[in-house]
Specification:
Elements: H1 23-29, H2 43-53, E1 66-71, H3 73-84, H4 103-118, H5 125-133, E2 143-150, H6 155-174, E3 178-182, H7 189-196, E4 202-211, H8 229-232
Antiparallel strand pairs: 1-2, 2-4, 3-4
Helix pairs in contact: 1-6, 2-6
The protein binds flavin mononucleotide.
């Protein structure tokens, strides 16, 4: 339920300290951060995370990910460009047209929990839209990456990109940083491709906000729920 201890994490256990963490701790601490401080992140730090992340597995070792980094002054220019443009038809369908259970409820509850933490009521459509639009500001993050792959690649290679991105996000926790993967950028894919100079043959999968979390912001107290084992595991006799 929204606002209960189960769904809220205290500011002390979010991904802020850069002490060594076990894999289990990094997995547990990683969360989609939706409010960042403007504290800069050096290119060198991001480069090191990318080098380490490139150890991620991929089918046939094809390594289909193509990553573009937007940081510092470039981020200021990017934000200006975003503000000057409208959203576009998405480059791909983010979800199936009619999501079914239990996924439909999981998605619905995520939104309800988040808006409850922010005190935005269901009837407050403008408030919800405004909050959604924060995605296009990378939730205030000073740095971001965009993950593209060749448009001729197939579902297995999209999955490879997911592995790369998760590896990056876990390593970011170890480095004391927070992240938010963002497929919403598919609704700005032309603008993004144009800005970063990606060739036409590349397709944008998602963006990712990178930075230091604002641990006092209520949205970062969200601890998203997970399905129970019996909802996604079958033990075969
Ligand atoms: C590929 C991908 C794309 C996502 N896109 C968005 C997005 O556009 N905006 C957003 O706020 N969260 C986005 N998320 C975050 C998910 O909502 C989040 O991972 C999920 O609710 C689980 O919460 P957690 O990441 O805090 O554990 C995305 C996650 C993934 C893996």
């Amino acid at each position: 339920m929204a606002g209960t201890d189960q769904n809220a994490r205290s500011s002390s256990d979010s991904a802020t300290d850069s002490t060594p963490v076990s894999v289990s701790e990094a997995v547990d601490r990683r969360m989609s951060c939706r409010a960042f401080l403007d504290t800069p992140v050096a290119d060198e730090v991001i480069a090191e995370l990318l080098v380490k992340s490139s150890r991620a597995p991929s089918g046939g070792n094809v390594q289909p990910w193509k990553i573009y980094i937007v940081n510092g002054e470039t981020m200021n220019r990017f934000r200006k460009r975003v503000a000057e443009t409208d959203i576009e038809p998405p480059g791909y369908d983010i979800y199936p047209a009619k999501l079914w259970e239990p996924h439909r409820t999981a998605r619905f509850e995520l939104g309800e929990q988040m808006y409850a933490l922010l005190g935005i009521a269901r009837e407050d459509k403008a408030g919800r839209l405004e909050r959604m639009a924060e995605n296009y500001n990378f939730f205030g993050a000073p740095a971001a990456l965009f993950c593209f792959l060749d448009g001729r690649m197939l579902p297995p290679q999209w999955s490879d990109c997911g592995m790369f991105l998760q590896t990056f996000m876990l390593l970011a926790v170890e480095a004391g940083l927070a992240t938010c993967p963002q497929e919403i950028w598919t609704t700005r894919s032309r603008l993004v491709a144009d800005f970063v100079g990606a060739p036409d043959k590349l397709m944008l999968f998602c963006g990712m906000a990178i930075g230091h979390p604002d641990t006092d912001h209520p949205v970062n107290r969200l601890r998203s729920e997970r399905l129970r084992l019996d909802q996604f595991v079958t033990w075969v006799d």
